[in-house]
Amino acid sequence: MFRRSLTTFLRSSKSLNDFESIQRFAHSLPTGKPPKILITGGLGQLGTECAKLLRSQYGRENVILSDIIKPSQEIVDSGPYIFADILDFKGLQKIVVDHRVDWLIHFSALLSAIGEQNVPLAVRVNIEGVHNVIELAKQYNLRIFVPSTIGAFGPDSPRRPTPNVTVQRPRTIYGVSKVHAELMGEYYHHKFGLDFRCLRFPGVISSDPPGGGTTDYAVAIFHNVLRNGKYTCYLRPDTLLPMMYIEDCLRALLEFMCAPAESLKRRVYNVTAMSFTPEDLVEKLRKYVPELHVTYNPDSRQLIADSWPQIFDDSEARADWNWNHKYDLEKLVDLMVKDVQENYINPEKNRIIAKA
Ligand SMILES: NC(=O)c1ccc[n+]([C@@H]2O[C@H](COP(=O)([O-])OP(=O)(O)OC[C@H]3O[C@@H](n4cnc5c(N)ncnc54)[C@H](O)[C@@H]3O)[C@@H](O)[C@H]2O)c1
């Protein structure tokens, strides 16, 4: 599913120009060639936008998007797309060999709320899948990125702020599998020299529908309020969680992948941009929809949110490889209102404008 329209693509492309500063990070291999990159789980919330950013840096043909989902025509037209099931180790080996892959961006996962609904599948995808890609990266000497999450912390962790290294005793299978991924990657790094890189992302906000996480309300609220002025939030109004706009998230990924190994004091870093509550977001949205009506009906996701960090301490990423966010709550709301309106509420109108 290529879920974004031309308008968003143009806006994103324009904002990708804001990534000029990234040029200095743009990294080539010792051969002088750009890296060949495989993205797994590429048709989720982060994958297609990540492919766009990496293709803008390294060329369309050097970034291969993959998933187990049938792609739309738009996806196929936008660059290389292949089937890759992360549970099929031999299939992954063939892809790496046939396409001479250098970097692996591993996005396949079952997120927090979905994982709780199907624990055996989450164990397979999130744990067995990670074993496969880490072993694959070791065998073929790949640089590998595996995202972790604020969900890798639990009720025993300090929440305001949550430092880079602290107690991690998550209570979801998603969190348990992410701690496992962090430890496996660090172990392979120390034991075999694997170039494993991992960022713990907060809730990532983009206009694309998210994949079943606990922070999804911060996307759904825009779609609902802009369409019919109403939203029922599944978290309490005062639930403080760390968040980040998708462009910051993907820029962090690229800058981190390009950071010289000597600058990395560790292989797993917290990154974030802001923390806010549902009521903070509603207040900002009221500027655009003054008559909006939001009610609160907490469900099982409240328990998950209550065990997660409230303020995420990413000072180590800022110190070691100069991580810096660009989007605060004000800018995020402004961009999301425009994105959702242009691409989901008024797509017809935009098609006419685009044709004109
Ligand atoms: N979106 C966020 O807010 C957020 C926050 C923190 C971390 N992350 C991490 O970033 C990564 C990407 O997140 P997302 O929001 O794009 O997830 P998503 O749920 O939107 O997408 C995950 C993709 O994985 C694919 N997948 C499932 N089983 C697979 C298999 N066997 N083989 C190959 N692919 C398979 C799915 O088809 C889906 O397209 C995940 O690892 C997630 O844990 C996301």
TrEMBL record:
Domain NAD-dependent epimerase/dehydratase: residue ranges = 37-271
| Broad EC category | oxidoreductase
An individual GO BP term: L-threonine catabolic process
Q: Which reaction does it catalyse?
A: L-threonine + NAD(+) = (2S)-2-amino-3-oxobutanoate + NADH + H(+)
Which EC numbers characterise this protein's activity in its record?
1.1.1.103
One matching Pfam family is Epimerase
Pathway listed for it is: Amino-acid degradation; L-threonine degradation via oxydo-reductase pathway; glycine from L-threonine: step 1/2
Which PANTHER family does this entry report, sorted A to Z? Answer: L-THREONINE 3-DEHYDROGENASE, L-THREONINE 3-DEHYDROGENASE, MITOCHONDRIAL
Annotated family: Belongs to the NAD(P)-dependent epimerase/dehydratase family.
Would you tell me the protein name for this molecule? L-threonine 3-dehydrogenase, mitochondrial
